[in-house]
Write a structure and sequence with these properties.
The structure holds 2 protein chains of 2 kinds. By secondary structure, chain A is an all-alpha fold. In chain A, about 75% of the residues lie in helices and about 0% in strands. Chain B is globular and about 65 Å long. The chains are: A mainly alpha, B mainly alpha. Chains A and B meet through helix 5, helix 6, helix 12, helix 15 and helix 16 of A and helix 3, helix 4, helix 10 and helix 12 of B.
């Protein structure tokens, strides 16, 4: 009756509802009106074309980091390093965008490719260490995040500027921003990156589900030994998977560099795009279509929450708690399955 | 020689000072992972420890006087242990992916900490505490020539508590029946179960110990280094501790050694510009040194590490 496919839809939906319910309870406990709180959130995401544009802007990199992590998951890898890959991708995109002059048709793709390449290199290191030496990728990718953060800050201060706090703005010919989109959305920072993100989602879906290579990648993730026995190059597939995952996360950095900001500031802390991507991938069930929906949900929560302090006096961090609980419930899907089956039985 | 000694004298106390929080937290990680529960949530446990330590310290500094920091870290231990129950329930009872539930712990701790800070203090960060730990000269020992100034002058007592805890953890894990049970649960839960050890209860205890020690580590960091709580108080120290667990091959003394090493590397980036040999090295190399060295260490240049066999796998009774 309840097939696995149904569960894959039911579990995330139940998790989101439980997360929002918990958020409402927290608001009640601290003396806020949860209905007002959530109305403020809704209005903050959809209340005007400006807010809607900002929501889409936030969704854009989330789709890419979510895809990156989902792709790694499907191939049996846990890429906590999307955060670092975003940072190096951002830096590479802005560097190409600011340092060169070329017509847009060459310049923009070049900047995007640079970002993907930088992210891919950042994924290659944990990939090759995993494939050749069997080192667990989780801890390496965590370390690579810090290396990315500190190196890119140093690059901005010492190489790209004269001890400045942010890079030069990129040239018009490398920009994803569009006056048309901005005017249409009440001068939000929405940009054409959303098209890049959707294309990447299609690419990931097609690669994983429709190609032989994708089959191999999934197969290695599912059972290394059987794949080896079947004659697949296990190490090569692990490296390729991390490289692709890193490349997609690098593109998320390009969205910030070429779209939203048009430059790169030094960062004293992580952007959190990569970490939030973990939540997006999990909620999206690690498939490309699910990731788009989950990215949209988290974009709505994040941008909407900015309206909560002014409209309902609720600290916007409430949404961080809700997101954490949603991940917790998704992770604990076993108990949700068990509860649903139990309810089902008693209903009969 | 004198210059070298001066350099050492400026590095060692700072290295010990930066190591202490990492040692506590890494020991927590050792307990959890030895029982077979991966704990990526160490970072979040430190955040909760730092938060509760600071809040308690600010609230009770007038009533408790000079023992305030000590009580604060005890409270942080209790809060950390309770908070880690969330990870235990998910990882042990709900059979969640342990890496994912650890990630949830990290998100939750930061969200909760900052939310409550805004709620109670009306801003993104707490006030500075008036009763942190102060460095002291240890009487008698600090008069020993050479060693005295190096190890006992201007030192935080918490650093020595941390080192003592590492030996205590080693004793508990390797010399007591409890330790043997805990390790057996992480190596071969089914065999342990057959021998009458309650696998799930053992794992709950181990995770709660990691919560207490992680909370302690966070509070010690907050009360010796940061002095207040904000979103940016704990940024990566938990992950460094996790690296120390693996670097130290899941052994308490190994983890302590790795944490001391990370503390040393961090102190180099703090005092490096004042040391003749290092002053021309760009600061960024010293900053990334601990991370690069961790990668090199894991890549096998310091010997292969063997994780507890059942690490990361939920135990389902009756399955093979």
């Amino acid at each position: 009756m309840f097939s696995n496919k149904t569960f894959n839809i039911v579990v995330p939906v139940v998790s989101v509802l439980l997360g929002l319910l918990a958020g409402a309870i927290i608001m009640l406990v601290f003396g806020y009106n949860p209905i007002q709180g959530y109305i403020a959130l809704w209005n903050g995401a959809f209340g005007s074309s400006y807010f809607f544009g900002e929501t889409i802007r936030q969704v854009t990199p989330y789709i890419l980091t979510g895809l990156s992590i989902a792709f790694a998951f499907r191939t049996g890898l846990f890429n906590i390093g999307a955060e670092g890959q975003v940072i190096v991708g951002w830096l590479a995109a802005v560097w190409v965008g600011a340092a060169f002059d070329a017509p847009m048709i060459i310049h923009l793709p070049l900047a995007l490719i640079a970002a993907a390449l930088a992210g891919a290199i950042w994924g290659f290191v944990p990939g090759i260490l995993k494939a050749k030496l069997g080192v667990h990728e989780v801890i390496i990718t965590i370390m690579m995040n810090y290396i990315a953060l500190h190196i890119s800050n140093a690059m901005i201060r010492e190489v790209l500027t004269d001890s400045g706090d942010s890079t030069e703005p990129i040239k018009e010919s490398a920009s994803l921003a569009s006056n048309w989109l901005m005017e249409m959305t009440g001068y939000s920072r929405m940009h054409f990156g959303i098209i890049v993100a959707l294309l990447a989602a299609f690419f990931v879906w097609f690669l994983l589900e429709k190609t032989t290579r994708g089959y191999e990648l999934r197969s290695v993730g599912f059972n290394k030994h059987a794949s080896e026995y079947a004659g697949m190059n296990v190490g090569g597939n692990i490296i390729l998977a991390m490289v692709i995952s890193g490349g997609v996360a690098g593109l998320a950095g390009a969205m910030e560099g070429l779209g939203t900001f048009g430059y790169m500031p030094t960062h004293s802390a992580f952007t959190n795009l990569g970490f939030d991507g973990i939540a997006v991938a999990l909620l999206g069930g690690n498939n490309a279509f699910g990731v788009i929906i989950a990215a949209f949900l988290f974009g709505v929560l994040k941008i909407g929450s900015l309206n909560m302090p002014t409209a309902a006096e609720v600290p916007s961090e409430l949404v961080e708690i809700v997101i954490a609980l949603i991940i917790f419930f998704v992770a604990s899907s076993y108990i949700i399955r068990w509860a649903i089956l139990k309810l089902k039985k008693e209903g009969k | 020689m004198a210059a070298f000694f001066d350099a050492l004298q400026s590095i060692v106390p700072i290295a010990l000072f930066y190591s202490a929080p990492l040692i506590f937290t890494a020991l927590g990680g050792v307990f959890s992972e030895r029982s077979g529960v991966v704990n990526i949530g160490l970072e979040g446990l430190m955040v909760i420890g730092a938060f509760s330590g600071i809040v308690f310290n600010l609230t009770f500094e007038d009533t408790l006087g000079s023992v305030t920091p000590w009580i604060s870290i005890l409270v942080a231990m209790v809060v950390g242990a309770i908070f880690s129950l969330i990870h235990a329930v998910a990882a042990v009872s709900f059979r969640a992916d342990q890496v994912v539930s650890g990630v949830a712990i990290n998100f939750l701790a930061l969200g909760l900490g900052v939310f409550l800070t805004k709620q109670w203090y009306g801003k993104g960060q707490t006030d500075m505490v008036d009763k942190p730990f102060y460095s002291t000269d240890i009487p008698v020992l600090s008069d020993i020539p050479i060693l005295g100034p190096l190890f006992f002058d201007g030192i935080f007592v918490t650093s020595y508590v941390a080192i003592a805890f590492a030996f205590l953890a080693w004793f508990i894990l390797y010399k007591t029946p409890f330790g043997l049970r805990l390790r057996s649960v992480g190596e071969h839960p089914m065999a342990a179960d057959t021998n009458g050890i309650n696998v799930n209860r053992m794992r709950y205890i181990a995770v709660m110990i990691s919560g207490a020690l992680g909370g302690l580590g966070g509070a010690v960091f907050a009360l010796t280094i940061a002095y207040n709580f904000s979103q940016a108080t704990i940024v990566g120290q938990g992950f460094m501790s996790l690296a120390a667990v693996i670097f130290g091959k899941w052994h308490p003394l190994g983890a302590m050694g790795a944490a001391l090493f990370f503390g040393f590397a961090q102190s180099l980036s703090v005092v490096g510009s004042g040391i003749p040999l290092l002053e021309n090295v760009p600061a960024v190399y010293l900053t990334i040194a601990p991370y690069v060295l961790t990668i090199l260490a894991l890549a096998g240049f310091i010997g292969r590490a063997e994780a507890p066999k059942a690490n990361g796998q939920p135990y389902v009774k009756g399955s093979r």
